[in-house]
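Rotation project, supervised by the postdoc (A.L.). Task for the rotation student: set up a whole-complex structure prediction and record inputs and outputs verbatim in this book. Inputs entered:
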Amino acid sequence: MSHHYQSVLESIHAEVLPLQSDGAVANYIPELAKVNANTFGMHLRTIEGLDYSVGSSNELFSIQSISKVFALALVVSIVGEKIFKRVGVEPSGSSFNSLVQLEYEKGIPRNPLINAGAMVVCDALIDQLDKPKKDFLGFVRRLAQNKKIGYNERVAASEKEYGFRNAALANFLKSFGNIRHDVDEVLDLYFHICSVEMSCKDLANAFVLFANHGKFPSTNEVLLTKSQTKRLNAVMQTCGFYDEAGEFSFTVGLPGKSGVGGGIVALHPHRYAVAAWSPRLNAKGNSVMGMKALELLTTKLGSSIF
Amino acid sequence: MSHHYQSVLESIHAEVLPLQSDGAVANYIPELAKVNANTFGMHLRTIEGLDYSVGSSNELFSIQSISKVFALALVVSIVGEKIFKRVGVEPSGSSFNSLVQLEYEKGIPRNPLINAGAMVVCDALIDQLDKPKKDFLGFVRRLAQNKKIGYNERVAASEKEYGFRNAALANFLKSFGNIRHDVDEVLDLYFHICSVEMSCKDLANAFVLFANHGKFPSTNEVLLTKSQTKRLNAVMQTCGFYDEAGEFSFTVGLPGKSGVGGGIVALHPHRYAVAAWSPRLNAKGNSVMGMKALELLTTKLGSSIF
Amino acid sequence: MSHHYQSVLESIHAEVLPLQSDGAVANYIPELAKVNANTFGMHLRTIEGLDYSVGSSNELFSIQSISKVFALALVVSIVGEKIFKRVGVEPSGSSFNSLVQLEYEKGIPRNPLINAGAMVVCDALIDQLDKPKKDFLGFVRRLAQNKKIGYNERVAASEKEYGFRNAALANFLKSFGNIRHDVDEVLDLYFHICSVEMSCKDLANAFVLFANHGKFPSTNEVLLTKSQTKRLNAVMQTCGFYDEAGEFSFTVGLPGKSGVGGGIVALHPHRYAVAAWSPRLNAKGNSVMGMKALELLTTKLGSSIF
Amino acid sequence: MSHHYQSVLESIHAEVLPLQSDGAVANYIPELAKVNANTFGMHLRTIEGLDYSVGSSNELFSIQSISKVFALALVVSIVGEKIFKRVGVEPSGSSFNSLVQLEYEKGIPRNPLINAGAMVVCDALIDQLDKPKKDFLGFVRRLAQNKKIGYNERVAASEKEYGFRNAALANFLKSFGNIRHDVDEVLDLYFHICSVEMSCKDLANAFVLFANHGKFPSTNEVLLTKSQTKRLNAVMQTCGFYDEAGEFSFTVGLPGKSGVGGGIVALHPHRYAVAAWSPRLNAKGNSVMGMKALELLTTKLGSSIF
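Outputs recorded:
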């Protein structure tokens, strides 16, 4: 089987290479544009702890919105499902409506994987953590079993410098009372968690816990209950891919999350977690090569959940 | 195993009974309100053709929106995936935004399981079918292997009489050119397909094809390709439960579809299809007992896909 | 003074002529496009009954939305201000939001000069009139003192054939219960009143009543109370020019109403009514030469109300 | 005539007194709630410089949104009408849509008298003024000929402390590039101009310039051109009363502006300016007694422009 996974990744690598000039790198903040656009990497880890990889699977990149899953997992591990009184679990429709939807739903974001929802999660983390930025990073390092993972302060600063729409969202949430702490403090944590840099290997290592009922595979230590893990996976399935959640459900058929840094991570419950990365994005903001790689993976393994 | 399924259904029946007074029967059209509110039925059919049932599993009820899956399956079986040029596959956010979302997206409904999307599907069916109403019914009868299935003309007439919001949607779609036929003709088909009456047994029989790669289990005859079936299942997973798709993904974790008549049908790929029915609805328009029954089913069977 | 008005109109005529190729004729319905695009006419009538005119002031054209003022005046003359329980008196913001605004405000249109508001007025007229289409026409003929005024049935039919957005609005209103009669009946009246053909002279004659406290100038017969007339004039001032009400308030400074047929009519309380017509429209749907002509009129006469 | 105005004000005073318990004081910021709720004052100044007053016409109150007219007048007096490239002159529909409207119109606020528009004006003032807060105050003092007019720093601080929706708007504008300066700097000026305290006498004195073609009545010095003054008056007419602009156009029929502090100021071109104040507001945010007082004024004087 180990041989099988490796050969599947290698054939995927060969098949996605022709796409390496398709799409465009995110440039809404200058720091994100400073990347080797044509890179591709992929890493798969099974719940038994076996690793398979191709391409630049050890190269660090900005995980961006993928970090929202970590923030959600952390807050659920501390306060449980009561966080879902402040943020929903339903998909959000087009981003066009985000502000009016927030108004209509009285400041309760549709789900924790859109920006507004992640800000509420950050606000809740500030409640719970002594040193929110340090403690969040410690949590991610522990999940990925890599103490070198860190924030990219230039990216965080760049997000802040150009993040007026996010500042609008945070102030709007505050006006509804769904942000308790200082808006600047919440945004500072939010911009930092988005700036975390990880490799495909790091991401696959971290997400394998969601494929393993919420337990650390190496130690069987429980971080999340089975029910909590199921909740997180369901949220990823229905809300993880911006305006392409339905498409991803079809083409890949696994719960996962993407980021505008070009990373995508997905998991097959009870089997494995897999991360792919390539910076060029399609029109909906998801990695071109990454999406294709995951589609090929489930096709070749026959492992879509549908 | 047959014994196992049956005992699971029986324990579910016992557990949902205390909920039989919770929720309220849909009354937006008078005909729907004429139902025995406290009824419950459930039927499970495996892809091997084994049947298990409890309660009023043979009683006919108005399948309402569940019919949108049949319409979609029929149009895909005829014209293939090109229907998705006229209707999307993404979840739709709150119903509040439906008209403005349709305007923003220039008349392309978000998915085929919301009213606007089903109307586009009906319009496409009128293109393809000689006698749309008769042919659609023939298709449903063939799927469910029951020639007695029929429309409830009083329900269809009632839908039309009170269906001004649907008429608004259809005209709005027409103004964008995404309805080709006469608005009244499209609405007539739409209101009829919603009025189909089936039992839990009929629905489970019909949906088992989606659990069986698109093939009729009894004959192995192919109606839909594997890819088409995967597409339908993915659409059900992300769009099948009004504003509770995320909640259903979590609590049940299977692709499915509900209707305001109180029916819910779901399927576990490669294993079974299951239908539950009880007329009282929760605030989001899904059957109270039906939702609970399916949640208990996947809990007891350990068969959520997450 | 009579000499003065005539010379002012003549100088205006000379000044607007260079604009006769600017803008584009409305073509959303084919019938409206069949017009001599470069025509211009203007007619001013004082409350004393003196007439002044230039250009094609006797040529008939489709008055379109100007007719909404007649419908409103007629319903107010019959049922009084209680019509304003079913339709507001506030401006409507951009047309983009019309449907969502109607939803937010539970089916009460913002004002009677937008399409949805005029439909509610038509519905109320059907309540009150024996033969709505005939009686409405009789009312307009009486206001304009011209028994030859009529509907253009080809325009009315064309409006209906392409009027799916209006049909969507009417059905949406019906879903809120703010249309009582059959949707098709309301739309038929609505499309007919929009198809009325009048000349600049007819329009000035008809609107002089609004400049004369609601009394017919020739007979002093009272159609509307002073208060009702003030209400109509205020509604025209704030809502009469689509998305250019503010611009018109500034450049012209008189209450008035425009139509996509290229007509504009305005009035100076206690002094005169004036109509201008030229079919080419600016980007906001108002006549290019007509807007300029009225701007020049109030500049030359110093008669803006501001 | 002077006797006439005085007796009219006195009869108005008597007629509005029974309303002194109607409505509720604005309490969205605590500082505003600290006011004697039942107070009423009114002051009218003619362009000839004659003054008439009743009640607490010399008592200071928070002018709030009325200040937006001063900000607009100041920026127009400096940069002219080019400010209208950054902010429109059209009414805005319901406040519900403010954010989505701003998105649809790409960051160009509908008019300078809504919050977003006033922020753009503040941003433009920061461009032009050495010491924006000091210079703005100097301008208001000069208009009102009262050097004692000042900011209420507690109100400004309170606005800031609770102004998250305004902060959301400002950041949203910044994301579209329609705010050039630092968001906090713009908000600081915005919150300060809203905190200005004036009496009815001060307001009438200041607004008489808009009734006098833009010239200071006492010196005939020109601040605004006739055209600029007409523009301001037209903007006040169509946009000055939140969601009650149409109602005010009808009941009062004069250009004006209200504030949530309970102040209302209006002007009759070429005749007078008048201010009324009473803190209790109706459901649309306008002073109950103030609205009634102005309605009675134009009824008694027969001076509506309609």
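Student's summary: Strands of chain B lie at 24-25, 41-46, 51-55, 61-62, 150-151, 196-198, 256-258, 263-268, 272-277, 280-281.
Supervisor addendum: Residues 65-194 of chain B form a domain with the Beta-lactamase fold (CATH 3.40.710.10).
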